Amino acid sequence: MNNFQRVSVWSQWMRLAHWSIALSVLVLMATGWLVANAPSVAAGAGDLHGYAASVLMAGLALRIWLLFSDRGVGGWEALVPSGTNLPAMKQMLIFYFTLGRSPLPAWYGHNPLWVPLYAMLYLFLVVMAISGLFMQEHPLFAGIYLPSIHRAFAGIITGLALFHILTVILQDIRGKRGDVSAMLNGYKLFDTERQDLAGPGKQFPAVSIDNIGRDRKKDR
Ligand code: HEM
Ligand code: HEM
To answer: Which of the four, 43, 76, 122, 161, has the lowest number of CB atoms within 10 Å?
Structure first.
């Protein structure tokens, strides 16, 4: 029987940033679609779009602050793809192509294949915020029609967000670490045999899976 250790991976600030961005983007996708396609409710949807945009910008500001203040998984270095991750990225692609039937590679913080996609997603969300803020007063900026930019990037972000949700669900079902609940409570489960994942100079102490949960009171 394998031993597992509950390890804190996502700080409360990272989780706050993730969920304020995630929930606001879902509302922005729905209300943006209504603004463009449902004239009878466009005014109300436009108001809601504005409120959700404020939540998104607050979440993005927090996440950008974490990029520079966090020394761990929240720091900018964690969103730069590294050559050492290439085998895990390849294994992850095979995992998707076989719809989760081939083994899920092991990693500590971010899914290695998604590292460049997360960085791109943040960049695109900044483009959405800038185009959304200025497109009504100044639709034309340096020869670029901002509403077209806003619409085009909305499509790309919608595709990425839906694919992200599907893949984290698949990752959670096929993996043993509890990836989705980790984004809620901060903790992942790691096999103590995989000491290489604990990070430089760190070690997972061996804890039987039967004891997981008994440390909850102590953690709080
Ligand atoms: C992922 C984030 C977002 C998505 C998916 C999104 C999507 C959309 C879409 C599809 C439209 C309709 C465009 C059309 O008429 O064809 C729209 C309109 C608009 N968006 Fe966004 N948007 C996002 C973020 C933002 C942000 C952050 C802001 C402001 C800071 C913003 C401000 C606006 C404004 C002002 C409009 C025009 C609304 C109106 O006519 O009442 N959006 N958005
Ligand atoms: C609503 C369902 C969602 C769930 C259950 C969920 C869950 C997760 C999980 C488990 C991770 C860590 C995945 C990993 O790399 O292994 C993650 C990361 C991430 N998610 Fe989501 N997510 C959701 C929606 C969204 C949406 C709508 C967005 C925005 C477009 C989003 C943006 C991100 C980003 C940018 C990261 C990287 C974390 C960072 O470094 O900041 N998520 N999510």
So the answer is: 43
